Amino acid sequence: ISEIENLIDKSNILSIRKLIQKKLNTSKLVLYVPNVYHYQSCYLTDSILHGIEYFKFQQKIVNFFKEQNDIGLIYKGFETDLDLVNGSPIKDYINDKDISNIFYTSDIPLYKLIFAVDKIVVDHNQTALNEILQSKKETLLFDQGEYNIWNIGSDAKELISENIHLAETQTEFLDMLDLF
């Protein structure tokens, strides 16, 4: 049992889970943790995380879960990113499409959400992954391969693959979502 799991209030986590299940009208919950994208033209320079391409990729993920009526998706926004400005691309996309099985939140802390869900999807090797791995939840990670400056090294890939599903291309990630 992880240190984080020992420190959290399990009744609070159960309350969060039940509220989201009721809102989304489903029992299965998947948490999607995107990269913190601070603003347009941000410093990110890896294979998909620049400009509009990243948001198109996120829309594919949202569209996939929109079709999964028996799964509720929690999209974890962050208070430090585009949630602070008008025109948050994915938040607006979810709201405009009126998707009933997707819940966008930047208010609930990640360390609570990871214990309130059944599975976790991460689209970037990032700091949040350290917290997520503490949960021992089934996790899908998009690493973006060898040419990404923030990729997982080959030695670490072997170890991390024992605990998570690892995809290195957009196609592989989206295919793995379907099996996940």
Listing every helix as H and every strand as E from the N terminus to the C terminus, the arrangement reads HHEHEHEHEHEHEH
- Radius of gyration (Å): 16 Å
- Spatial order of the strands forming the largest sheet: 3-2-1-4-5-6
Helix content: 40-55%
Span between termini = 24 Å
Average the pLDDT over all residues and give the rounded result.
Answer: 79
Word description of this protein:
This protein is an alpha/beta fold. It has helices spanning 3-7, 10-24, 52-66, 89-97, 110-116, 127-133, 154-160, 170-179, and strands at residues 28-33, 71-76, 102-105, 119-122, 138-142, 165-167. It has a 6-stranded parallel β-sheet with strand order 3-2-1-4-5-6, sandwiched between helices. The longest helix has 15 residues, at 10-24. It starts with a helix and ends with a helix.
Summarize the model shown.
The chain is of the alpha/beta class. The chain is built from 8 helices and 6 strands. Helix 2 packs across helix 5 and helix 3 (52-66) runs parallel beside helix 8 (170-179).
Features:
single chain, 180 residues, alpha/beta, 6-stranded parallel sheet, 8 helices, 16% strand, globular
